[in-house]
Design goal:
Elements (H helix, E strand, L loop, with lengths): L2 H9 L25 E7 L2 E7 L12 E4 L2 E6 L2 E6 L4 E7 L5 E9 L5 E8 L2 E6 L3 E6 L4 E7 L10 E10 L2 E9 L9 E7 L4 E8 L16 E4 L2 E6 L12 E6 L13 H4 L13 E2 L11 E6 L17 E9 L4 E4 L5 E2 L6 E3 L5 E7 L3 E8 L4 E7 L7 E3 L2
Antiparallel strand pairs: 1-2, 1-28, 2-3, 4-5, 5-6, 6-7, 8-9, 9-10, 10-11, 12-13, 13-14, 14-15, 16-17, 17-18, 19-20, 20-21, 21-22, 21-23, 24-25, 25-26, 26-27
Protein name: Lipoprotein
Keywords: Signal
InterPro entries: Quinoprotein_ADH-like_sf
Length: 400
């Protein structure tokens, strides 16, 4: 698995509690408030997942569930699906009044298996993806396995496993990246997307393109490395986070309904992107999984520019380095804009969410502001710190 994800649990530490400079960070004597997000925190050698409100970030960690050293969380059908990757299980948790985390209502055990992606077809059917050589079909209400789609014939000869990772369902088809894992960290040198008919549970085609390396990710439980905008599915390759020298990173796209990559579109992030004072062309860089698109077609992410900052991953402490710049991304026009928020640590670079009014929430851990939540307004190009956190914030998953 990705060192970045493993590092979450060993690198995390709880900071000493600090006073709030905002009423939105006030601790609550009662829990009579609505929680808007699911989130995860890491303490020592274990992780905890629960629900939270941005108005009560001092309550982070209360009524959370311990899930081991690696985990993923997804919201669907008024429930949280939590994957404990250490033991190989996925549990469905109910949500009680005010979206507090409830009890396990169903569970699927897959001992020794890394499964971190769920693609929901409807209330009674979903696919599971991970290091499987297959897609597992389940009933998400009961968490019972009902079938499988064998993908082993698509495994490259030098791959240890073909892993369905990031995926998205559009117009009755699941588009899912096939990661040809040649090691725990390095995936294939070619973009591959399996296209699945979700009614027939059959592979329609596998789109392949060697302009970039494998698209998608195994630690993208929110399936945000694939983005649907204006009839295209944009597929992102991070070139194995730099663990496979020589791989090419960037975006390709597939037109919805088609089975091949658009030969006229490719955007190479390392090769093509330069931002004054942030990064130069040809310096290796990569994006974290992006948000779902805003109404104006932008997505939001963190751009890791560790090479420009003369930083490298040498040990677990390296993941505390502040190398990830919040950015706005225009996929159609191939533009990236740096935002007025400080550099976050590389493992606190997942939490971002586009609100209904177009403003964007970023969860960061920066040198200037510590562990905090910011709200960015694209109309004014200004960001405001709205809350502090005792812990380093990670995923923020809207409960809707």
């Amino acid at each position: 698995m990705n060192k970045k994800l493993i590092a979450l649990t060993f690198a995390a530490s709880l900071f000493a509690a600090c006073g709030s400079d905002s009423s939105s960070n006030a601790s609550s004597d009662s829990d009579d408030y609505k929680r808007e997000f699911a989130t995860s925190i890491s303490t020592g050698e274990t992780m905890f997942i629960g629900t939270m409100s941005l108005d009560h970030t001092d309550d982070l960690g209360k009524d959370f569930v311990e899930v081991g050293t690696r985990a993923g969380v997804v919201y669907y059908d008024n429930a949280l699906f939590i994957a404990d990757l250490d033991v190989g299980s996925i549990s469905r948790y109910s949500l009680t009044e005010n979206n507090k985390l409830g009890k396990v209502t169903a569970k699927l055990s897959l001992p020794g298996t890394w499964v971190n992606h769920i693609y929901f077809v409807n209330d009674e059917k979903a696919y599971l993806g991970g290091m499987l050589d297959s897609l597992i079909i389940i009933n998400p209400k009961t968490m019972k396995q009902t079938g499988a789609i064998d993908l082993s014939k698509y495994k490259d000869k030098d791959a240890l496993v073909v892993s369905p990772g990031t995926g998205v369902i559009v117009d009755g088809r699941l588009y899912v990246g096939l990661l040809q894992n040649v090691s725990d960290y390095a995936t294939g040198n070619e973009a591959q997307v399996a296209i699945i008919d979700v009614k027939k549970d059959e592979v329609v085609a596998v789109a392949k393109d060697d302009r970039v390396a494998a698209v998608g990710s195994l630690d993208d439980s929110q399936n945000q490395a694939f983005t649907v905008i204006d009839g295209y599915i944009y597929c992102y390759s991070n070139a194995s986070w730099g663990y496979a020298p020589g791989q090419v990173d960037g975006f390709l796209r597939i037109k919805v309904g088609e089975t091949k990559f658009d030969k006229d579109y490719a955007w190479y992030i390392t090769k093509d992107v330069a931002i004054d004072g942030i990064t130069k062309k040809d310096n290796f860089k990569y994006l974290s999984p992006a948000t779902y698109p805003s109404e104006d077609g932008y997505v939001y992410s963190f751009l890791n520019v560790m090479v420009d900052l003369q930083q490298t991953w040498t040990d677990m402490d390296s993941y505390h380095n502040n190398t990830c710049k919040p950015v706005q991304v225009d996929l159609a026009n191939k533009k990236i804009k740096a935002l007025p928020i400080g550099y976050s640590s590389s493992w606190a670079s997942y939490g971002k969410y586009v609100e209904d009014d177009g403003n964007v929430i970023f969860a960061v851990s920066t040198e200037e502001d510590g562990n905090a939540y910011f709200r960015y307004d694209p109309k004014t190009d200004k960001a405001e710190k709205i809350a502090k956190s005792e812990q380093i914030p990670m995923w923020i998953v809207p409960l809707k």
